Amino acid sequence: MSKASRSTPDEASGTAVRPPAATMRDIAATAGVSQSTVSRVLSGVPTKVRIGAETRERVIEASRRLGYRPNPLARGLRGAATNLIGVVVRDFSDPFYAGAVETLVGQAMSHGYNVVLGHVHGKLDAAASLTSVLETRHIDAMILLGDMGSHPQLLADLRDSRAPVVALWQGTSPLEFPTVDADDRAGIRTGLEHLISLGHRRIAFVNAELPNDYRVRETAYVDFMRERFGSVPLGYLERTANTLAGGDAALRRLLELPEPPTAVATSTDLVAIGVLHAAHSLGATVPDRLSVVGFDDILIVSHTVPALTTLRMPIAEIVSHAVTQAVTLARDPEATREPHLDVFEPELILRDSTAPPA
C-alpha cells in the first residue's frame, strides 16, 4: 500500500487518520517531471507542447501509485476540465435504462471521465432544477437518456448551457442537440417479416404506453399490416402499460377474440415477458400455439422460458457513439454543436419463442 493511501492510528483517539491526499506536486516529484507536465497529462486535453509517450506513462503510473484523485469542484471553479459527464435519465425504473446507464458509465470511464447522474420522471416539475443541481460549470458535457419532451424548461436551460449536450433515444423531443437513436420502424418491420417467413398471418401487436405518447413502433406495425394484408384485424392492436401485468392482461384479451392471433409482436421486452406469463397460465404453449417477439433485448429475456426472440437495441454502439461525441465536444470548443440525428438499426435475435403456426 502506498504512503499516500495508508491510514495511521491517532495516538489520542486510537482511530485511523488518513494522511493528506496526494497532489500534483507529489506526482511530479515521483515521476521526475514538472508540475505543469503533470497537469497537462492528467487534464486529458490536447496541448501545443508535445509530451512523449514514456513521460506520459510515467506520470499516469505515479498518479495511480499515489492514489491521486482530482477535485472536480476545485477544477470547475478555476475553469479547468473536471472530467465529469452529467447524465440525465428519464426513468430509472425501466430495465432498459438501467442497462444503458451501466454501459454509459463504462464507456465514460474508458475516456477518463466519471459520471454524475440526475433523474426525471413523468411530468415532475423538479426536472427544471436539474440544471442547477448538475451545475453546468462543474461538468464537461451532458448526456440525456430518454424522451424529455415533457420537460421543455429543462431542454431550454440545456440549450443555453456552457457544457455541450448529446441526447439518446429522444422520441418525441424536438431535435435540439446532437442525437443518437435506433431505427424503431426498421426493427418492427424486421420482427414482422420474421413472423411472416414462418407462415404467420394472424399477427397481433401489443404497444406499451410510453411517456409523451411515443407510438412509432405501433405506427410501424399498422403500416406494415396494411401493406401486406390490407388492414389490421379488428382487436389485434392492444395498448397497455409498459409493465409485466400490462402484457399479461393484453394477451388475455387477444386470446378471447373469435379468431385469436397465432403470433404477437410487442413494442418492449417488458410487455413481452408479461405475454409469455399469460400464455403459460392459459395453456397457450409458446411457441407451439403462439409465437412471441419482443423489442430491446434486455438482459432477462435470454433466460425466460422459452427464451424470447427479440429485436436487439444496439445499446453498446449507441452509447459508445454518444459518449465519443460528448467527449469530442467537451475537449474541442470549435467542434460543431449543431443538432443532427445518427441512427442505428436493431438486430433480430432468434431464440425459442417463435416457430411456424400450428
Provide an overview of this structure.
- With 358 residues, this protein is of the alpha/beta class.
- Helix content is 38%, strand content 18%.
- The strands form 3 sheets. The protein has a 6-stranded parallel β-sheet with strand order 4-3-5-6-7-13, with helices on one face. The protein has a 6-stranded mixed β-sheet with strand order 9-8-10-11-12-14, sandwiched between helices.
- Helix 1 (24-31) crosses helix 2 and helix 10 crosses helix 11 (269-282).
- Mean pLDDT is 86; it is low at 1-8.
Multimeric state: single chain
Number of E-state strands:
14
SSE-based structural type: alpha/beta
Order of helices and strands: EEHHHHEHEHEHEEHEHEHEHEEHEE
Mean pLDDT: 86
How is the main sheet built?
6 strands, parallel
Task: Categorize the overall geometry.
Answer: elongated
Q: Which stretches of 5+ consecutive residues score pLDDT under 50?
A: 1-8
* Binned strand content: 15-25%
Widest β-sheet, arrangement of strands = 4-3-5-6-7-13
Helix content: 25-40%
SS field, number of helical segments = 12
In angstroms, what is the radius of gyration? 26 Å
